[in-house]
Amino acid sequence: MCALKTGERVKEQVLGVYIPDERRYRWILVDATPEFLSGEETPHRVFSTFTDISELKHFEQKLEEKRVHLLSIMESAADGIWAIDKDMKLTYANEVFKIDFFKFVGAEIKEGEALLPLMPEAGKLFWATHYERGLRGERFTFEFNATFTNGEKRVYKVNCNPILMKEEVIGLALFASDKTRERQYTQAIEQQNRQLRDISWSQSHLVREPLTKILSICQLIKDTGFETLEELELIPELLHASEEMDQVIQKIIREANHSKK
């Protein structure tokens, strides 16, 4: 044994012993303290303790597997994910957050660093307010409009979730989803709807005039009878009014198609 040969104490050394019948290792925690006789430099004997920590080792392994699994999920997510402690220092950030944060502030962020000092002055109060709100134990969602250092604009939906330990808030976990394209699509649809409403309002009276003529001629035909059509020369009038209405409809279609581009 090392302690007996060297005379030095062995503390909390872990040994793995393979058990063939169980097809697994048993993990032993060893402590050894040498004892010397008076005037001698070599140990007389060693007091040793052996503690089976196999279950603890197994638990640690399972915990590490879960940690790696969770880390893999967060790193493969499309959202920016980060966590801060009670002092608003970064405790975790996935690659998506790190990339977007660099684009936003022009500086890299590392775990253990405070976030607010790196923020642009215009954004410090905004983020300090929301971080403080979350650290008081509130779960909430908010929207953040970011302007990157290259001028690019992004819209994020941010979910803020307090991290609790024994009912005490020890930090925050935040998830930021990029909603820029979704917002652009929504705004484009709203713009098209406004244009279509404007077209409908401005062109409706143009449709009424030829439509009124057509309805009047139809009523006259109904009242007069088909025998007098040639004498009254209503067919050309009816055709003319129909052509006017067709032209108005075609104009509305062209303007509607133009508004979609």
Overview of the structural elements:
The protein is built from 7 helices and 8 strands, in the order αβββαββααβββααα. It has a 5-stranded antiparallel beta sheet, sandwiched between helices. A 3-stranded antiparallel beta sheet has the order 1-2-3. It has 3 domains: 60 residues, no CATH class; 102 residues, Beta-Lactamase (2-Layer Sandwich), CATH 3.30.450; 78 residues. 6% of the residues are buried. By secondary structure, the chain is α+β, with helices and mostly antiparallel strands.
CATH topology of the largest domain: Beta-Lactamase
Low-confidence segments, given as residue ranges, are none
**Number of DSSP helices?**
7
- Helix content, binned percent: 40-55%
Instruction: State the separation between the terminal residues, measured CA to CA.
Output: 83 Å
Assign the CATH superfamily of the largest domain: PAS domain
Supply the CATH class of the largest domain. Answer: Alpha Beta
Question: What is the subunit arrangement here?
Answer: single chain
Please specify the SSE layout and strand pairing.
Blueprint (H helix, E strand, L loop, with lengths): L1 H5 L3 E10 L4 E13 L6 E10 L1 H23 L3 E6 L4 E4 L1 H11 L15 H15 L4 E8 L5 E13 L2 E11 L1 H45 L4 H4 L1 H27 L1
Antiparallel strand pairs: 1-2, 2-3, 4-5, 4-8, 6-7, 7-8
